[in-house]
Amino acid sequence: MKQFLANPGTPPPVIPSKAEGSLSVKSDSSTPLRSGRNDTHRLLLSILILLSFLYLLPEIISADNLRSTDYRIDMGTINMTGGEKTSDTYRLTDTVGQTFQGRFEKNGYRIRAGFQYIHTLLPFRFSISSINVDFGIVTPQVPKTANNTLRITTGAAYGYEVQAYEVSSLKTTGGDAIPDTACDAATSCTTTDANIWSDATRYGFGYNMSDEDVNTNDFVDGSYYRPFANAELSEPAVPVMSSSGIATDSAATVTYKINIAPTQPSGRYTTIVKYLAIPSY
Amino acid sequence: MQTRNQTKRFLDFARNDMLLPVVPTASPVIPTGGRLRRPQWRDPSCLPAGKRLAFRMTMICCLLFLTPTPASAQSFDLSISPPITHILIKPNTSIIQAFNLKNYSDHPLTLIARLVPFSPGNRNGIPELNLDSSPKYLDYFTLANSKIRLNQPFTLAANGSDQLVLQVKFPQNSSLADYYTSLVVSQVSPDLDQLTGTQLSGAVVSNILLTVNLVADPNVNLSLAELRLDSSLFKIGPYQVVDTLSPVTFSAVAKNHSPFLVTTSGNFSLRLRNSTRLTSGYKPVYLLAYSERSLESSESAGFTYHPHPFDLGLASANFSLVQNSASVSETITFIIFPVKILFSLILVATLLTFIIAPLVSKKLNSSLDSIDN
Asked: Any transmembrane segments, and where (chain A) (predicted)?
């Protein structure tokens, strides 16, 4: 470090020049050259130290979440002892002393977390592979599809349901809308009842479900579609995936389909489709 | 695109104003009035070894800071734990429950946490969320976090986790009842007019079953609302008939007539000719106030009995539900009979009697006739 610091006692550095070969430049420490060089060194050093500090700074700790380097609520309940107890002969997850009336009388509370057959600390996890549905440029009477994957792990819950709804039909800010699909004329569909949509002259926006934990009695194959429940019309969210038992990384594919009429005004059509992952109680 | 521009700007800046390696200038290095000309300083090779090291480290650090992260499609990947909590609490008692959130995606998520009431939904325990309802009792739930508030957006860092610390305190004069509430943590979506197409948004839910009561085990009134033999072939009088070659499957639905939830508990047993052939308990699921719930066997086989081929006779399946210190039970009596075997035998006998026997007889007669001739 010392070599970067200005030291009047040390000889000035030798600076090679590629243009003219080696050239020794002697100057006094008091000269502007030496001063400018030291300034640059200091600047470099400062940047280096600053960046090092930025990298090495510890993560900011706050008491916000009842978490610090010393403690964190892991079991989830304050003033309770609990967690997982194991021995060679048993494995049990619960909270201690909850089964006794006396305990409740004394403390005034009792808490049970998670389904008792499963490790209570396993999280309930839900993912959507991509939150943007890109149809690209849509041509009238040429249906376009896009898809993504929903995944779920029930963790400490026994059973689940994923429900979906759209906040409105696909609309421009001017109010032009792409209607939700009603499927083919001979095989009409509703928000809860999928049906065949293969006619290129039937327009709208809808979705198909396939793979795990999907109601295959409803979504029989890839030609079966439903419109999303529309919150603007006060339609309740509908289940798109469900299981009455444990799910571990169950994955379902959602295929979104759009088909527009030649009379559809051009513009930017937008909506938001919301998915709620709900564990069983 | 923005990151690319940033990097480009940085590189331009570095080339022009910092000591990035550049093509050595042809101009000689001549001190001018004690000052070095700028081009000479732009060549790091003219620095002493120590300074070159400092220069390189600085460059590496800067590049590390400004290296763009790999571009990937935006995703939603969030977990909540625990997904279900039963809180039994006396009025005027305070309890704190922490809910762990983890963002598994490689970008921050803007989330919003809110509490909504729910009512018992279907018989599989899926709640019916009342997303637009905001009853008064929700005021008794507060978040103890200093920075995160209910109904206000907060950010969960990429691959980060956080806790929602929920405090519950019902006042002394609260009604003794069950309060079913869901903690909904949903992704905040941009405004519709900022979108360019269809955007998806995810939410995870944790169910809170809150009972405000003075006793831990209140009196409950349960019944078996539905008891069904799913594999019945036909009925003879009051008895359903099942076949010995097919599994015999039952289903049962419990009903809670009380204002407080209970955990399902009890036994299923199947008896044939005074001997017990099958027993199992129930999975301890919550049966909410004034609701119905399908009972589930604690055994993987469920409520299914596989008869032996020679099982025959009157059998009974009994479902009992424990409520407080007593229990309620219902029984289905049915007949196990080798229907398929019997029908097969009858069919074979019919074939023998009416088709094969006449043919054989006819052939035999013709043979005898030919011998006679």
From this structure: 43-61
CA pair distance B311, B286, nearest whole angstrom: 36
Specify the length of chain A in residues. 281
Query: Domain range for residue B366?
Result: 346-373
Min Cα separation B79/chain A (Å): 4
Residues B208, B228, single domain; the answer is no
**Which member of A112, A244, A256 has the closest CB to residue B124?**
A244
Instruction: Evaluate whether residue B230 is within a structural domain.
Output: yes
CA-nearest residue to B39 within chain A is: A17
Cβ contact A261:A232 at 8 Å: no
Residue B140 DSSP class? G
Nearest CA distance, A247 vs chain B (angstrom): 13
| Contact of B109 with B189, CB cutoff 8 Å | no
Q: Are strands B248-256 and B292-294 parallel, antiparallel or unpaired?
A: antiparallel
Q: Which two tokens stand for residue B344?
A: 């097969």
Give B-chain residues touching A174 at CB under 8 angstroms: none
The predicted complex's ipTM stands at: 0.74
Mean of the per-residue pLDDT values of chain B: 83
Name which of B97, B198, B201 to mutate to probe chain A: the one with the most chain A Cβ atoms within 10 A of its Cβ. B198
Which member of A31, A108, A276 has the closest CB to residue B93? A108
User: Are the beta carbons of A76 and B51 separated by less than 8 Å?
Assistant: no
* Alpha-carbon gap, residue B206 to A249, rounded angstroms: 18
E strand intervals along B136-221: 141-143, 153-156, 161-169, 177-187, 198-212
What tens digit of pLDDT does each residue of B10-64 get? 444 334 433 333 233 333 333 334 444 444 444 555 556 666 776 677 666 555 5
The domain tally of chain B equals 4
Residue B252, in any domain of the structure: yes
Contacts of B34 in chain A (CB under 8 A): 27, 31-33
CB contact under 8 A, B197 and A159: no
Q: Determine, for residues B48 and A111 on separate chains, whether the beta-carbon distance falls below 8 Å.
A: no
Interface test with A, best of B63, B130, B200 (most A CBs within 10 A): B200
d(Cα A207, Cα A201) in Å, to the nearest integer?
A: 17
Residues B142 and B233 in one domain: no
Q: DSSP states of B45-60 as a string?
A: GGS-HHHHHHHHHHHH
Task: Give tens-digit pLDDT for B95-140.
Answer: 999 999 999 999 999 999 999 999 998 899 999 999 889 999 999 9
pLDDT, average across residues B216-232: 90
For the whole model, what pTM was predicted? 0.71
Q: Residue B311's domain is classified under what CATH number?
A: 2.60.40.10
Nearest to A272 among B34, B146, B189 (CB): B189
Interface with chain B: mutation pick from A14, A22, A71, A281, highest number of B CBs within 10 Å:
A281
Domain ranges of chain A: 2-56, 81-112, 125-279
CA distance B19 to chain A (A): 10
* Bridge partner list, A258: A144, A205
Q: What is the pLDDT of residues A143-175, one digit of tens each?
A: 999 999 999 999 989 899 999 999 999 988 888
Integer Rg of chain A from CA:
33
Residues B175 and B102 in one domain: yes
